[in-house]
């Protein structure tokens, strides 16, 4: 299929009993394969006699079986986004040196690897990129939650420090861009339950709210008493 042939593809809406297919010629189709390839940087490090651990600090190659334990300890000690970004920069530097033999050693068959002549490593997401993913796309996570709050006529705002703190948590948890929504949802969980039927007019999220030191700040409007509500109803009837 990768080298160009005619394949029979089942129709999306066809019935199973009829087995209707469409012939597709793959000769002029560009195939792009992608994947995470976790641990590939360690294979490259082993091949190039470099060490992907310790932010440039040399490691005795005689450690052998202790290498995995040392890496686990190092990973647990990465408590700040700066350490994680340094680790990602080292990994990116190693992945730039990837060769087909590294993918073969990773577990892919040579016949498959040989049909993809161009290897393009992607760099890791840093905090600034995660903040942009949070805010800039048309259907970004922040815009979706703002629209959700707008349905209850409540304004939702985030400080710049709060957005950076959310991105830092995604880096620390190693969940990437997909983990941003879960973090934002956990922060706004209580306000989302409190807002319906309340007098809340605005919710403001700060860095302390993201870090769990306080709840998001809810700004309340002046409640309408029963007398005003009855007068408003009579005015509408008249």
From TrEMBL:
A single GO molecular function term of this UniProt record: ATP binding
A biological-process GO annotation: proteolysis involved in protein catabolic process
Cross-referenced SMART domains: ClpB_D2-small
Originating gene: CLPX
Domain of life, per lineage: Eukaryota
Domain annotation Clp ATPase C-terminal: ranges: 125-219
Signal peptide: none
Name listed for the protein in its UniProt record: ATP-dependent Clp protease ATP-binding subunit clpX-like
SUPFAM superfamilies: P-loop containing nucleoside triphosphate hydrolases (SSF52540)
Keywords linked to the UniProt accession: ATP-binding, Hydrolase, Nucleotide-binding, Protease
An annotated GO cellular component: mitochondrial matrix
């Amino acid at each position: 299929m990768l080298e160009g042939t005619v394949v029979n593809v089942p129709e999306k809406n066809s019935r199973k009993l009829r087995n209707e297919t469409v012939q597709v010629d793959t000769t002029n189709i560009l195939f792009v394969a992608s994947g995470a390839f976790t641990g590939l940087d360690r294979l490259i490090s082993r091949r190039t006699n470099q060490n992907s651990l310790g932010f440039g600090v040399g490691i005795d190659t005689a450690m052998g079986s202790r290498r995995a334990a040392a890496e686990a300890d190092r990973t647990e000690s990465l408590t700040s986004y700066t350490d994680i970004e340094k680790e990602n920069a080292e990994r990116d530097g190693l992945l730039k040196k990837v060769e087909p033999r590294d993918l073969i050693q990773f577990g892919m068959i040579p016949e498959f690897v040989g049909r993809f002549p161009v290897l393009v490593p992607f760099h890791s997401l840093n905090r600034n990129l995660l903040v942009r993913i949070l805010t800039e796309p048309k259907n970004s996570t922040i815009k979706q939650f703002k629209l959700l709050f707008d349905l209850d006529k409540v304004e939702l705002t985030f400080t710049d420090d709060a957005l950076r703190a959310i991105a830092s948590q995604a880096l620390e948890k190693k969940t990437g861009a997909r983990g941003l929504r879960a973090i934002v949802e956990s922060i706004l969980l209580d306000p989302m339950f409190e807002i319906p039927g309340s007098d809340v007019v605005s919710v403001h999220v700060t860095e302390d709210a993201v870090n769990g030191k306080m709840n998001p700040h809810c700004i309340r409007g002046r409640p309408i008493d029963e007398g005003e509500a009855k007068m408003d109803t009579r005015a509408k009837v008249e």
